Fold this sequence. Notes:
Radius of gyration: 31 Å
Distance between the termini: 50 Å
Strand order of the largest sheet: 22-36-37-38-35-34-31-32-33
Number of strands: 38
Organism: Fusarium longipes
InterPro entries: ArgoL1, ArgoL2, PAZ_dom, PAZ_dom_sf, Piwi, Piwi_ago-like, RNaseH-like_sf, RNaseH_sf
CATH class of the largest domain: Alpha Beta
CATH architecture of the largest domain: 2-Layer Sandwich
Structural class: alpha+beta
Helix content: 25-40%
CATH topology of the largest domain: Nucleotidyltransferase, domain 5
Largest sheet: 9 strands, mixed
Mean pLDDT: 88
CATH superfamily of the largest domain: Ribonuclease H-like superfamily/Ribonuclease H
GO molecular function: RNA binding
Number of domains: 4
Pfam family, one: PAZ
Low-confidence stretches: 8-16, 108-125, 850-864
Number of helices: 25
Protein name: Piwi domain-containing protein
Oligomer: single chain
Amino acid sequence: KGKGKGKGKPGKPKKSGPREVKGRKLFLVIKETLNELTKKDRSLVLATEFKSQLISLRKLDLGPDNSIQVNLPSSTNPDKTEIFEVALHGPAEARVDEVLKYIKSTTGASNDPLGKPTSDEEDAARALAFPKFPDVVDALNVIFGFGPRSNEDISAVGNSRYFSFKNGGIYKNMVMLGRPLQAARGTFQSLRLGTGRLLLNANVTHGIFKIHGKCDTIFENLGIHRVEMTNGHQIRHLKLMNKFLPKTRVLAKMKFANGKEVNRPKAIYGLAYAPEITRACQNNEHPPKFDKGCEFPGPQNVRFYLASDSNGGGAYTSVKDFYKKKYGSDLKNLPLLNLGTAANPNFTPAEFVEILPGQSVKAKLTSQESTVMVNFACRSPYANALSITTDARETLGLDDGKLDQFGIQVGRQLLTVQGRVLNAPGISYYNSRAQPTQVYPREGSWNVRDIKVYKPGRMIDRWTYINVKPSSRFGPVQQEIVYGFAQAMIGMDIRVNSSPVSPYTEVIDQRGLLHGEADEFFKWAKKNRIQFVLVILGTSDSEIYGKIKTLGDCTYGIHTCCVQADKFRPGKAPYFANCALKWNLKAGGVNHKLHNEFGLIREGKTMVVGYDVTHPTNMPSDKSDAAPSLVGLVATIDRDMGQWPACSWEQSSKQEMLDETLTEAFKSRLALWQTHNKQLPENIVIFRDGVSEGQFAQVLQKELPRIRIACNAKYPKNKGPRISLIVSVKRHQTRFYPTSEESKTSNNNIENGTIVDRGVTQARYWDFYLTAHSSIKGTARPAHYTVLLDEVFRAKYGGEAANELERYTHELCYLFGRATKAVSICPPAYYADIVCTRARCYRPEFFEISDVESVSTAGPGLSTGDSKQVHADLANSMYYI
């Protein structure tokens, strides 16, 4: 396993030294390097990820300097050659035999594979090491990825996702808002260590790409048929499109002096934008000329200086006339593309440019685009399973012979594993006669008709409402509907005044809200001691929602509940009930609890904690580097497990591990528990959300000690709590499919409550997959839990600890307060994720990004700007629901 870097030296080396090669050029250099190596030794078996790693079955002999020279045709002049020196560093040995011995052993850490016994300390260190054998797994993943990465019809995204565009690929265009995007279907693959064998984790995946095809066709599909200088809508449309085009790889049709026509690979600078080019070329001797008032010119709107071959003179000609004379083409007056730069433009008609397929883009999707994406990606379990066993094999090249050269074969059938289904717990409410009553879920859900919440929150005596309209064409929700909502809450035993405080205005338009009217409304609300504001939204604009939540949560300390006008207006009981559950949680109430409580819950001595970190994504590089990572932490306050007050804070951008702030935040949760229970908890069960296997060790080495410090500060010496630390992950690629008619649901998914803790797990890890929820449509995604530390369950349940933890986690999934169904990931992790999402609302300068722009690959940095803290009046509540 060698590390390689390509340094380019076109012709003779320049005094400034060699330059590092990147992007497409790097791919070509490494590809040619493999060709040169195999020319010298046909017996070599090689693989690479075309970036920095080269895998070989034996050591390479490259001479004393460990380098090789390769030649490539010049990208600017095919008659010239560029020379590249490729240096290999290493090598490092990846011992596959050691991995195989490890996974086939069910006892403690094995002796060293070379025959040298290991000490107890080494055994212990290896047992706690996360992940296991990363170098070998990495090398094998490079081998598995080499086939698809070598295929020009396949686009590799990241380390593990592959999208085939052979014969066009499988995609869905998303052009409803003028952004030339498409959703494509591909395959995920990653090697996993199983018990007794190596596993290939494969799944259907989806991604966002730039639309491919002839540019004139793309323009027309976007509704642009010709340049219209006075069409404001078209100009806005083209400005939006122009954010997407830079660096897009294309084939441009060109004709050489000898009359030969070729398609040359080029990159788009952007649309030809007259104001930018005019500024950049103002000092040129013969700058291009544009029709007055034309921002995005077509071929007939721009003239450039064409030098004469014979006498050294020249004259201005239009792009339209030039292409008519040289190619005999009658061009439509579509916007021109610039394949040069602003200072040295290359005006190219859309008819002569074809965007290549497979160009991934990271974009924050609009609500309409998200709907298209979800519908495209939502497929039945059978359809996904069929794709994995057919299309995926072709995309991944599992049968093309490259893997055979390394002695690797992949089974043709999905792996069959054993699972079991846990029983759903009973749910406790009160009935209309104020008596305790139980509801028993069916397929993971239940309804709340004619029942009351388990414990009402504080009295909501002073509350009001406001309508937010996108325009004057939308009327406000009538007052009687608002009063009907109040009666619905009272019917659920939620303590609320039946009459809201009349607002000084019932309606704010969307524009006014963003320009000060919302602030004035909340000032009035604070002055009038308003506790809750019902916000009736006529729009789904995230900027509006974020503004309201920032003013309510941070500036004024007033609870807000946002509802959609079109869903609220009909006054239907299920929607009212769903909103009412949020009001009761915000007021400190408990909506429901488990009927037969789990032992740890019943004793009332266990605090449950969840925390998560969210990072800046899908934004320009300058904002991505500056935007903070956001932390959310929640914890229970009593045995009911219905209230989960939260705290959140910011830390350095793209930093997953929590800093010292965790200690103080954890102290505050312990203090809150002590306030409600007159004592500190004996047990603390922590669910850490969202970290990868490669970060497990850091959680134990960096975060756990900070939690211990918090406990040491609050507990008497040597009387600290028992702690269990469990990582929960929802965003993974493992899926399970039913193997019989008896074990499937009506939509062909596995049954809710399914536990899988063998077959795809490791004997040395304590991990399990739980599908607590019932998937409404599509393929159910289980949650994956890994126990990093356990001082609670083994101490209490001994040999039954694994089963009891699985049951405990499953029953927690029925305690998500704002829903009447089991959720897919346990509430401490779910709530922590919601807290992080809410914290994003407070920083719109970073997270309210709508343009299609790439995410930076730069490293972490410190955030700028002023962070916003939740108001003291809401700090110890479920304000985030």
